[in-house]
Structure formats: structure tokens, C-alpha cells
Amino acid sequence: MESTTFTSSVVIQMISNFVGGLCIFLLGMKYLSDGVQAVAGDRMRKMISMITDNRIAAMGTGLFVTSITQSSSVTTVMLVGLVNAGIMTLQQSIGVILGADIGSTVIAWIVAIKITKYGLIITGIAGLFYMFGKYERTRFVAMLIMGLGMLFFGLLLMEHGVEPFRNHQGFIALFSSFTPRSLWGVIRCVLIGALVTGIIQSSSATVAITITLARTAVIDFDTSVALVLGANIGTTITAFLASLGTSISAKRVAYAHILIKVAAVLITVPFFFPYLKLLELIMCDSATIATRIALAHSIFNVLLAMVFLPFTNLLNNFLLVLFKDKQAVEIPALTKLNKRLQETPVVAIEQSRREVIRMGEVVGSMLVQLREIITETGNSKKEKINILFSQEELLDRMQEEITVFLTQLLSGGLISTLAKEAQEQLRRSDEYESVSDYVVAILKLHLRLQNAKLSFDEEEMKDILELHTAVQDYYQLVFEAHKNRNTNILITARLRAEAITHLFRRMRSRHLSKLSTTKVDPLICTLFPDVLAGYRRVKDHLLNIAEADAEEAREMTSYVLVGSNANATT
User: Fold this and answer.
1) pLDDT per residue over 435-468, tens digit each?
2) CA distance 190 to 187
3) What is the pLDDT of residues 475-511, one digit of tens each?
4) HEC string of 375-408?
5) Contacts of 357 by beta carbon, 8 Å cutoff, 6+ apart
6) Overall pTM surpassing 0.85 (yes/no)
7) Do 542 and 474 contact (CB within 8 A), yes or no?
8) Phi, psi of 502 (to 5 degrees)
9) Which domains does the chain have, with CATH numbers?
10) Which side of the chain, N or C, has fewer Cβ within a 10 Å radius?
């Protein structure tokens, strides 16, 4: 074979093609993933929220989500955040991880399709729709297709960058030193694949590079398989980085991913050559090398899932023992929002929604505590007062963290539906925090009266408790609707709110009439209407939450109708 020589300008051109192609490929993956999340984000979120302890269902969810996002790293980062927020358990996440491993091989099949020469055309046509599309949904579908075109165009550039090296003796000598002709050679190839994937944080990109090198005959099939095994280990670094700074439960998800991948590769490496023969038996002789690599990648991850799926419970218990909970008690005021999850807005929104619901639960507890405080006289009253004040401080801090989290998410740019939901969550968190302020304000009025050695008479207490019950029942109506996404209660909520307002006015009017016939302490004259007004303000903020739910539902319906009309027009 005649060795090829290159001038410095030619070498620079080839390196530029390869590096530029890789960058375009990675950008295409991002556009593809972002476009899919924008178009199918709600479906993804619903699937994730419905995951049960059924390991088959969990694996199916991981397979589906990763197949459409084209990134197992995105899925595992989601899982870290969801487990950190308490939305999922570790055992549920293990099933999803196994499905994600299979789903991540889809990109290898896309890369294996030999249509790279059409990549630029696909990108250009989709780019026109993205730039000039009238409807947002159309633009995000165009982004998805544009990402696919960029994948193919990036691969074409990488092939152009690598192909001239196939006849260069120095380049051939370099790669021949990494061929898996021995066990040590296999290990070296695996380590290189893991290292490259860890650096670029994308196993799909490593597989794409491997297929590109194999297509241009720079490396053979055996080397490709070993590099792909290494890529399966390197892909775990993203979830590990996402787990830093999270709870031990979330860290276990990253450790589970690492443990599964490393164990599978360690089992395969000693039997690498029999494994190659197994692949040869399965594969068709006429298959291209790109197809053979994609099939090898898929077979490895399918076998991995088949081996580990029956033992998810055992793996869960092993991780619980290996990585024990810390003895230190976490501060309950801190939310479980994971900033790294902002890279996946759909799940970030779901995570923040859970925290807003948690705020609502605390408000419900405060209303229960308030009633017990104003009706009891025992020693436990002081303890309950302290609890109620601490709950109000808790909600202040939760609202602050939710506001920071959602503001950062909004500043990153979201599709209109997610942006609207983030804004409504900000509104709800503010309303719940305002309710807690008025609950504490009502308590302070009672304490002020108590410190003055005064008390409301039997009729006044009867009115206060009646209004308290009405407001507490109203809270239950609004909160359950918010928690269960029931947006059909607005008319009922407004009617109930109006009834509470009439009740407030009747009690206030009766109190004013009483002043003209009965001698009442001036402090009681002032505080009683203030207590009633406090309950009325609680009702007002709860009504705002019901209206926010209804407004969000209208926005979602409008978006779906617009998207459907756009698709019909197209």
C-alpha cells in the first residue's frame, strides 16, 4: 500500500472537517432532543408520573423516553432529579435505566443509514420552516427535523475528515496498536471508548465516530465493538455529575447506572472473542459494517436488560446497603429542586409543581393547627403555636427557592406552554405563601387578645369557627383540584367564594349592630372584624389559585388547537 503524504494546510482542512462535523453532530443531537421534548414533552411527563413498581412498565418507559430524546444521559439525569424530589423510588428508576440503555441504541441505527449526503438538504428545508413557521408547534417540529439533518451532515463532514487518513502509514500504525487482538488490547479499546465518551458526554457521538472510522476502513469491526463497549461505560459520567449536590437517594440512581454498565462490560470483556462469534452468527453477511456496529450495540444493551431486569429488587437492596443514608437530619425547609434538571424543562416543571403542591399541603396543616390553637387551652397550645410559626417560615423559604428555580428556568428560554405553566406555578407559590401570612396574622390577633387577658364571647367564637370551617372546606376544594389537575371547579369555586363573602359580611354587620346595644371592650371591637377580614383574604388567595388552574387549562387547550390546525394546514 502506498503511503499518502499531506501538506500542513491539507491536515488542517481534514481536522477542521472532523472537529466541525463532530460539533455539528452534537448540535444536531441537541436540536433533535429539544424539538422532541417540546412537541412530546407532556406525554413524557405523564408517562414518568405513571410509573409503578412494574419493572416491565418502567423499562418500557425508559425505552420510549430515550428513543424520542435520543439521549440516555437526558433520561438518567431526569431520574436523578425525580428521585431527589421523591417522585420516584430507586427501584422504579433501575427499570427505567435498563430501558434507557436499549433506547440509546436507536441513534446508532439512524447513523447507520447511509443518507449522509442528504443531511444539508434536510437541514436547509427544515431551517426555512423553523425560521418562518407561523405556529410554534410547526417550528419545533422543524427543529426536530433540522436536528436530524445536522446529524447526517455532521457525519458527512467527519467522513471527509477521516477518509484521507486511511492510506497514511503513521495513522494506520497508530490505530493498529489499539486493535483488540489480545485481552489487553480489548481493555485498551474499552478504556479509550469510555474516555472519549466521558469527555464529550455522549455515547451516541462516540458510536457515530466509531461508525465513521469503520466506514472509511480506518478501524475494523472488532475494534469498533470494543470501542462501543467503552462508550457504554463513559455515558454514565453525565448522571454522576448531575447527582453531585443531591440527596443520597438521587446519588444511588447514578451509582446504579454505573454499576450496571461496568458489571456488564466486565462480564463481556473476558469473553470478548466468543461474543464476537455470537454476533457473527446473528448478523447477515451482506450487512454493512455500520449496520453491524449498530446491531452489536443493540444486542449488548438488550442482553444487559434481560440479565439485570429480574434482579432489580436485589440491586436496589444492594445499593441501599452499599450507600447508606447519612445520619444527619436534612433541613425540612429546603425544597428538592435540582438545578441540573433545568436542562430538561419538562421534568423541571413537574418537579417544581410537586414542590408547589407541598406548599399547599403545609397550608392545609396550618389551617388545622390554627383551629386547634384557638379552641384549646392546654399545655400543647404553646407547642402548636411554635409549629405554626415555623411552618410559615418554611413556606417563605420554599417560595424563595421555587421562585429562583423557575426564574432561572424561564430565563433559559421555554416553549410557550411550559413558560406559561412556570408562570402559573410562580403565581400559585405566591398565593400559598400569602395564605400562610394571613393564617399567622389571624393567630397573632388571637395572641394579642390573650396577652390582654381578654377573649371573644361565645357568639363571637361561634362565628369565627363557622367562618374557619367554611374557609378550610374551601381550601380542601381548591387544593384537591390543583393537586389532581381538575380544572372544572372554577364555577363552583367562585360560588363558594361568594358564599364565604356573604357569610363574612353578615357576621361583620351583626357585630356592628351588637356594638350599639352592648358594651364591648375597644380591643375586641377592633380585633374581631380583623379576624374575619383575615379569613376573607385567605379565601381570596385560594380563589386566585383556582383561577390560575383554569387559566392554565385554557392556555393548554388553545395550544393544542393551534398545533392541530397548523398540522392540518401543513
Assistant:
1) 999 999 999 999 998 888 888 888 889 999 999 9
2) 5
3) 999 999 888 888 788 888 899 999 999 999 999 888 8
4) HCCCCHHHHHHHHHHHHHHHHHHHHHHHHHHHHH
5) 482, 483
6) no
7) yes
8) -65, -40
9) 8-322 (no CATH), 339-569 (1.20.58.220)
10) N
